[in-house]
Structures are given as C-alpha cells and as structure tokens.
Amino acid sequence: MKPAEILNTHKLKRTSCREGILEVVINAGQPLSENEIRENLPGNYDRTTFYRSFKTLEEHQIIHKIVIDNQLVKYALHNSITHKQDHAHFYCNDCDMVKCLDDIPVQKYQLPDGFSDNETEVIIKGTCPKCKNKD
Amino acid sequence: MKPAEILNTHKLKRTSCREGILEVVINAGQPLSENEIRENLPGNYDRTTFYRSFKTLEEHQIIHKIVIDNQLVKYALHNSITHKQDHAHFYCNDCDMVKCLDDIPVQKYQLPDGFSDNETEVIIKGTCPKCKNKD
DNA sequence: TTATTTTTTGCAACATTATTGCATTTAGAC
DNA sequence: GTCTAAATGCAATAATGTTGCAAAAAATAA
Ligand SMILES: [Mn+2]
Ligand SMILES: [Mn+2]
Ligand SMILES: [Zn+2]
Ligand SMILES: [Zn+2]
C-alpha cells in the first residue's frame, strides 16, 4: 500500500512530511529511528513537524513506536493483518536492530486484584542472526 | 535491609548519594522517578552523581530501572527473593504509578530461527485499584 | 601517622529527545 | 479561484542523560 492511499483511507491530508515518513518506513521494512528516517528524507527537515506527524499517524494506528531503554525509539508501520493485536518486539543488543514480531502475540498476564490492563508491551533483547554469524 | 548493609554486602563505599537513593527507594516501597527521589533527598543534589550512583547500583543488581514510553523512567529496588528473575511491570495510565510484579515471571517466547534472547521486558499498562475506585 | 593511589564528587558543557506558542503556509472543500 | 481549517516552520523551552576535568574523600601502602 502506498503512502497516499494510506492517508486517503484515513481521511488525512496528504502532506509531504506524512508521505515522506510513510515512504521511508515502508521501504525500510523494519522499524527506524527518527534519525534513520530523517537521513532518508530529501529536502529540509523539521523535528517539530516530524513529531506532530508521528502523533497523527499513531492516533490513526498507522504506525507505532517501540521504545528501547529510553533514548532509543524506533518507528514502524502497523502490519495491516495483525494490526491492532499486541505483538512482541525484538531488539538486537549488538546492532540496535528492532524487529516487529507480528507473529508472536503477547501473553495475557494475570494481574493482582483490582488491577486492570488494556495494553501490554514486550521487548525481547538478544542477538539477531546477522550478528550471531559475525564471529 | 538497610542501605548501609546493602552497600557493605556488595563491598561498595557508603557514600551519601548511594545511601540516600537506597533510603528513599526502600521507604517508598515502589518504583520512583529521578524527580521523586530528588524530592525526598535532603541537602544538595547533583544529577550527574545520581546517574553515576544509579549505574553502580544497577551493575550490582541492587536496583533496576523501568522505562515507560521513554520520558518516564522509574527506579526500583530488586526484590531480594526473586532477584535475578525477569518479572513484569505494571503502569497505571491514570496516575503514572509503576509496580514491580515480582510474582509474575515473564513468558519465554519462541523466536524466529537465528534469533537468540537473553532478557525480556514486559510492561502491562492499565488502571490501578486506587484510580479505578475514583469515579 | 603520613604518603600515595584510587574512587567518588560537583560543576560546566554538551547531547538528545520532545513539547509549546505563534505567525505563516497549504491542502482540500466550496 | 476563494476560503478556511489544518498543517507547517521556527524559536524558545523542557526533560533526560553523558562527558571531561579538577577537587575531595576514602582506601591502601609505607
Ligand atoms: Mn511492532
Ligand atoms: Mn521491577
Ligand atoms: Zn544484530
Ligand atoms: Zn493509578
């Protein structure tokens, strides 16, 4: 699906920042940091606009962010199939790569009395195949 | 266990910053942010020293941090019983309270081929009992 | 005890990530 | 093409965290 289509589907204005972010993230096929996105965007770049665009795209559940250890944030497209379902994320300690594990639904945890949940985040840290074969 | 004892056990110097952080976190009985810790510390406060003290205490697995949505970080004592075991954390969307769910071990996830894991973080977001009874 | 070495501290500077206010521009509806 | 609500760009500000370095404190050696 193309950026313009996605924006139309959600009745969002087609602005260059929104289209640019989507374009880059779709092409990458994996979660990217703000800097990685910026590096792949042509022309001038405004951080405020990025954050506001992200907020909009997030509210429409088009992209989501993955926070690793505060100070590393990656942005990723929602897989249109699993979409709303909570899924786990993988983080490679060696190369900082983040991967959406769309096929791995998160476990439903039994909370203590009185607590109720509505979202669960799971981040699995380890080594990715690429880094493992680097010895 | 008292701060001084803990530091002695780990053969760490008893400095006022380390003792202060431990004192405050032990008294609170729940994870606190840097600001919440600072507010409960007497005398002058240096952020650099806080971060360096935290690093030391973390390396000795005395306290650990919980990152909620980057921009909210809470620091908590390690439960001496479950200690090294990965445990889930609860975050209240209403009051920002964080709770260590020491009794809830994290599930072992089956990763795709070639990936290996060595640590898993689970954050369950929802409403705490106090906030639920506030209608 | 005194001297030497190591660790910790406090401060300034800097980096990164993120938010707000406001004037200007633009996309899309008419 | 005109109009208007929405989005943008820029400056200012905030929160969180790190680094270098000289001074202070603690541990160790003599
Ligand atoms: Mn994902
Ligand atoms: Mn915990
Ligand atoms: Zn890797
Ligand atoms: Zn609450």
From TrEMBL, chains A, B:
Report keywords, A-Z.
DNA-binding, Repressor, Transcription, Transcription regulation, Zinc
Classification via InterPro entries: FUR, Fur_C, WH-like_DNA-bd_sf, WH_DNA-bd_sf
Q: What does the organism's lineage look like at the top?
A: Bacteria, Pseudomonadati, Bacteroidota, Bacteroidia, Marinilabiliales
Q: Which family does it belong to?
A: Belongs to the Fur family.
In terms of PANTHER family, this protein maps to: HYDROGEN PEROXIDE SENSITIVE REPRESSOR, ZINC UPTAKE REGULATION PROTEIN
Any Pfam family from its record, for instance, is: FUR
Return the protein name. Transcriptional repressor
